[in-house]
């Protein structure tokens, strides 16, 4: 089985609207927007697909960064953007549908912002046989 290469490109927040518009104009569909908190920063990955090929754009932000909505290019992105706001307290400007923090009902506000943090851990090399 061959695993295809997937493009992952880090871009700035300022580049996001233009790069996403290019994807839309080129016929890519938005597959998902995923957010992860690592230490004190957030990684937001925008995944696109065309002709069974995935391409990803990633922005890395601090908690006080305002992220521009991509709903001008991908109307349905408002669901992901509201999710980022409700669960991580990411500020998203210009959403076509803004639930103002009420898309998800959670027992505590922004549960993935302060309470859960993923830390990068160095990978362990596999032991290829033999004793230690």
From TrEMBL:
Pfam families: Complex1_30kDa (PF00329). One of its GO terms (molecular function) is NADH dehydrogenase (ubiquinone) activity. Coiled coil: none annotated. Residues 34-96 form the NADH:ubiquinone oxidoreductase 30kDa subunit domain. The keyword Transcription does not apply. It comes from the Archaea. Keywords: Ubiquinone. InterPro entries: NADH_quin_OxRdtase_su_C/D-like, NADH_UbQ_OxRdtase_30kDa_su. This is NADH dehydrogenase (Ubiquinone) 30 kDa subunit. It comes from Methanoplanus limicola DSM 2279.
């Amino acid at each position: 089985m061959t695993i295809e290469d997937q493009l992952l490109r880090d871009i700035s927040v300022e580049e996001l609207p233009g790069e996403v518009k290019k994807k839309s104009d080129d016929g890519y569909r938005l597959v998902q927007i995923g957010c992860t908190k690592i230490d004190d920063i957030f990684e937001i990955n925008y995944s696109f697909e065309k002709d069974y090929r995935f391409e990803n754009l990633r922005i890395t932000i601090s908690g006080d960064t305002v992220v521009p909505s991509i709903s001008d290019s991908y109307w349905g992105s408002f669901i992901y953007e509201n999710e980022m706001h409700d669960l991580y307290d990411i500020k998203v400007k210009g959403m076509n549908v803004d639930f103002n923090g009420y898309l998800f009902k959670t027992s505590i506000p922004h549960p993935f912002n302060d309470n859960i943090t993923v830390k990068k851990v160095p990978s362990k090399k596999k032991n290829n046989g033999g004793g230690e």
